[in-house]
Amino acid sequence: MTHPGFFLVLEGGDGVGKSTQAQLLTEWLGSPVGGFAEVIHTREPGGTELGVALRDAVMHGGHVAPRAEALLYAADRAHHIATVVRPALERGAAVVQDRYVDSSIVYQGGARGLGDQVEKISRWATEDLMPDLTVVLDMEPSADRMARDLDRVEAETASRAQEIRQAYRDLARAGGDRYVVVGADRDPASVSHDIQQAVTAALESRG
Ligand code: TMP
Prior knowledge:
- This protein is of the alpha/beta class and 207 residues long.
- It is built from 9 helices and 5 strands, in the order E-H-E-H-H-E-H-H-E-H-H-H-E-H.
């Protein structure tokens, strides 16, 4: 299923600056040099009204069984892609999204040990909608970050931060030119500059 829009996903461990970069990229894509008349900045979990409730349930409540957690993220994703992302892409918009299927592969499939089924569930949930480009923000997990207030999922996966970092790097390596890994331990403007270059190359290569 092709579409006239541009679907860009930002991925990476907790605290690597995805939200800041998503904001900077949204502004740039909507500027004359970025060239998109419509740019949507969204996120998973929580990019819809239903998603906000699911985000709250999965991230701020008590223990959630790992398979239930995986299905809640997939439910959020199914509704978000069907009602927000796909319609925007079909209108020709650029969609800048904070986290997508790779988050489930890395956190539920890897860190929670649920394996390959997690990806299959997400692919079914999204009817195989693939990003045009995934930017993996990469940096050494910070000790400061570990000490700060963490949500339930972050607290339970913080001890696996190195493993999560490596899992993203592996996904990017296997995914070829649909991925770019950008060093995130620098000032946000330099990181954004590198992301803009990767986006420009991706837009040029598809003509
Ligand atoms: P964030 O919105 O601050 O990035 O937090 C989302 C948290 O949810 C983060 O700890 C990663 C986790 N998460 C998963 O475990 N699986 C998923 O599929 C997604 C989208 C997020």
